[in-house]
Amino acid sequence: METVNKRSSGPELADVFRNCQQDYLSRHRLTADQHKAFRAIVTCRTSIQGSHRLICEDCDHVKTCYNSCRNRHCPKCQYVRQLLWVERLKSRLLPVRYFHVVFTVPQVLRPLFYLNQKKCYDLLFASSAEAVRKTGSNPSFLGVQTGNLSVLHTWGQSLSYHPHIHMLIPAGGVDQDGMEWVYSHRKFFVPVKALSPVFRGLLFSGLEKHLNNGELTLPDRERELYEDRKALRKLLYEKNWHVYIKKTFRGAGQVVSYLGRYTHRVAISNSRIQEVDKTSVKFRYKDYRTNRIGLMELSTTEFIRRFLQHILPTGFYKIRYYGILSPATGSRIDCFALLKSQKKESQYLGYSTYGLLVGILGEEMFRCPCCRKGRMVYVVPSIHQNSS
């Protein structure tokens, strides 16, 4: 019999999946990645995932905890991972302002992207980063070597399929000789109207290459369109593509705070799910047209279908670094030295996993529920326990 960790909050994504697990899996064909994520979310922090024990240092009270699934699409397994990633990132962030730029994919391309996720997402990363590199190095603008941190999101607030790149770009860069840091004093170092067509041209060129080589699976409804390259180009070039700046951060501290709640998001968090029953799910969403919070209700089947659209291919990196922010380039150009600053070491360097959790979550999270004085510590399994 499956046993679940006791929860102290409301309905969760796992509850939605459990309510119609057998029926949904029997009626719908899932990819291997989707099936793996589905099972992980359902079994997260249950006896199926195994368990570990904590014991109080003072009163010897023992508590059994069920293990997390550690799947990156599980909303319960991202918090600590997110905090650790942000802590490591602190040593890499330059002490300058940052721009937040978003690159979106036109709606007509979304079916093609969904059928060819790895190739198309790779192309989206590469095209957006190259657009920033080319425009940043243009002498007509800033004329510097720049870089960026890119994060892939594939969803909208209603869980619709909407692949886009969130990019953080330092406000400036290194001159072409690699000897001086050049600051950007404008709202952005290149006009967005100039960046958008460069991005569009690079992405279309990459898609055309993949199509010519027969490397992409074509959507049945748009097959004729993708086979006619001139018609496809005309359609994609009729309108301007959406590249826009969302926010400017004044320094690395603001960036870290922002990244801490943004980069490791999944399609929907448990906090947004309001009501769950056998047939439907109600969840909060933000309508960006009115800037108001609303409540949306979907059938359980439709809710799961939408969520599963955002399961990434196994091994796919959704966070990437380019230019002066990438480790390879950073080893050749010491931007910290040019900025007369020093890298900061992580405060958790050398800690054990348990020590990291205590440092991140705080001592109170490990306070004994029995005596309320002692600290609960991890019990290392004995060889006998492992063998049994």
Automatic annotation (TrEMBL):
It comes from the Bacteria. Residues 147-326 form the Transposase IS801/IS1294 domain. Residues 16-105 form the Transposase zinc-binding domain. Signal peptide: none annotated. PANTHER family: ISSOD25 TRANSPOSASE TNPA_ISSOD25, TRANSPOSASE. This is IS91 family transposase. It comes from Algoriphagus pacificus.
